[in-house]
Amino acid sequence: MSLQYDSAKKLRKERNKWKVTTPEEFDEREKVFLKEKILHKEPTIKTFVRITAGKAKNFKLEIPKTTRPLTDRMKVQIFDILEKDIYKRRILDLYAGTGSFGLEALSRGAEHTTFVEASKNAIYILKKNITSTGFLLDSEVINSKVEEYLHKKNNEKTIETFDIIFLDPPYKLFNTKKTYKMEDIINMASNLLTGVQNQKEKFKGALILKHPKRYPLEKLSLNNIKLLESYNFGLNTISFYIVKELQNKH
Fold first, then answer.
1. With the C-alpha atoms ordered 82, 124, 13, 31, is the resulting torsion angle positive or negative?
2. 160 CA to centre of own chain
3. What does the DSSP assignment read for 150-163?
4. Is residue 213 part of a domain?
5. Can you give the residue range of the structural domain that contains 230?
6. Phi first, then psi: what are they for 208, rounded to 5°?
7. What is the pLDDT along the chain (250 residues), one digit of tens a residue?
8. What angle do CA 141, 147, 149 make, to 5 degrees?
9. Predicted TM-score of the model (pTM)
10. Domain annotation covers residue 67
11. What is the spatial distance between Cα 150 and Cα 164, in angstroms, rounded to a whole number?
12. Overall number of domains in the chain
């Protein structure tokens, strides 16, 4: 759901270091460079991703190049836990990429999904997936950096809220020496949960985070939510957070 461009960037840096003496030598290196660049544009997974249940069950989603989408196995685990809590809920899918989470939620009965994605390439494919699955009227696509979107939403006079928020940030944000970055993003996101803004709500909401297995979640100081459970999938983990009982929140 989030895009990785590190490998392509490394290629470009190497290209800038070339020391060539003839046009022929440059052309030869250029051929090798372009071949490697094309390889790095291939999807980072070899299998397809589909909608696993509901109205659009078995629909195969297009995958933006260099994307690591939420796998079917992860989705089945997540939605087995959410079960009936997904029905008629408002969803916020951050770092949306292919839209795998948000579209699965709509297929299973969610009322509306807001997709936030910075990559124009991913946005194009995301919109195709939304249209093809028939959820155009139930979706909103925001082409923005997640941090900018969250900052804007948190500073609005009337804060828009969501019942379930899903985050699949790029790996570069999971810097163990700069945990404040993820801490800020999660805190801003969790402030948009229904139960944080209105403690009287029976279903106060959930925040779901996909992250590297060894990332030190315990180092994060989270204002609105507490860890409920984590589930490991190889090198990745899915962690569920629920709203804390907040004091003096109106």
1. positive
2. 19
3. HHHHHTSSS---BS
4. yes
5. 49-243
6. -115, 125
7. 433 334 445 545 565 555 656 666 656 665 665 555 444 444 444 457 899 999 999 999 988 766 777 888 899 999 999 988 999 999 999 999 999 999 999 999 999 999 999 998 889 999 999 999 999 999 999 999 999 999 999 999 899 999 999 999 988 888 888 888 999 999 999 999 998 988 777 888 999 999 999 898 888 999 999 999 999 988 899 999 999 876 554 4
8. 40
9. 0.79
10. yes
11. 15
12. 1
What CATH number does the domain containing 152 carry? 3.40.50.150
Q: Identify each DSSP E strand in the chain by its residue range.
A: 2-3, 49-50, 60-61, 67-68, 90-94, 112-117, 139-143, 164-167, 206-212, 225-233, 236-243
Q: What token pair was written down for 138?
A: 């139930």
| Calpha distance 219→237 (Å, rounded) | 16
Nearest to 217 by CA among 200, 189, 198, 238: 238
Whether the Cβ atoms of residue 189 and residue 198 lie closer than 8 Å to each other:
no
Q: Which two tokens stand for residue 202?
A: 């029976």
Does 115 map to a domain?
Answer: yes
Does residue 17 fall inside a structural domain? no
In sequence order, the β-bridge partners of residue 231 are: 238
Return the structure tokens found at 52. Answer: 């696993």
Q: Which token pair is 51?
A: 């909608």
Give the residue from 180, 249, 195 showing the smallest Cα distance to 226. 195
**Lookup result for tokens 């109205």:** 55
Cα angle value 149/153/157 (rounded, 5°): 155
